[in-house]
Amino acid sequence: MSAEVRVECVDKKQSVFDVLEYLQHKIREQDILHRKDSGQGEATIHIHTDKPFAVAFSADWHLGSAGVDYATFLDHVRLILETPNLFVGTVGDLVDNFVKSRMKSAMLHALFGPQEQYDVVREIFRMLGDKMLWHADGNHDAWTEDESGVNVLGMMLSEAVANVPYLPYGGGINLVVNDGKVVYRIFAKHKYRFNSSFNATHGNKRMHELESPYDVGVTAHTHNPSVEHTHRWNGVYGKDIIHIVCGTYKVSDPYAAANGYGQSSWIAVPVVVFYPDEKRMIPFYHLEDAVEILKGWS
Ligand SMILES: [Fe+2]
Ligand SMILES: [Fe+2]
Fold first, then answer.
1. In whole angstroms, what separates CA 260 from the centre of its chain?
2. In this predicted model, what pLDDT tens digit does every residue of 157-185 receive, in sequence order?
3. Which domains does the chain have, with CATH numbers?
């Protein structure tokens, strides 16, 4: 007769996973995070005025780089602050921010580092205040979040100018004038595909077809500014459109020099004047030219 040995764990913990409860919890968490996120892809801005107003499209400040023309940058900030009815929308790369380890050389040659780069942007945002209509991020702005998961510029924007819409990936801005008498559709993205070295606004034209039938389409990133006032469609759909590529203040760029781009970086802050009683737009390639006209009207 063989002895029988019985082994039994009397308190084995069994896994209980209520998948429905789990996913409902995650859905609530998504909602909380969505409400916390200040980023948006569409913004509506109401403007009440009986005079033409203007928007400057400013990008690629690259603050911190030793190659930036800081005197012109400050002069442009002053002009925007001093000129009545002139507003500004920013389109990314405001900080140089070479925080990626493979870009160590660019960081080592910076005039000042990321802390002061962000400090300067925050103070410029505060100075611009109500003049700012929106901010869209560029790839240099996003590198801090890429490396650390922390969105510094987004946090600073809401701290410095609480009512300015934040478009992390760019997007649509509807300027609603005098309660809808005229609506101008702007579509702004720091980078877009289909860039051409031979046709500066080629990416904008594809963006117009694939993203949004805008009145004014704005890109940046290439540091090769351009303004093109043209038209699209016929009959009742026919309208004027303006393609804009922003310039930069980073006029000396070792990357461009080393990679055969030559003098590919130019200072230009394009401006569009918008009329309030009829759909009419006048673009300017240089901020200074627009300011001269706007001062004459005020
Ligand atoms: Fe840039
Ligand atoms: Fe860029």
1. 27
2. 999 999 999 999 999 999 999 999 999 99
3. 49-297 (3.60.21.10)
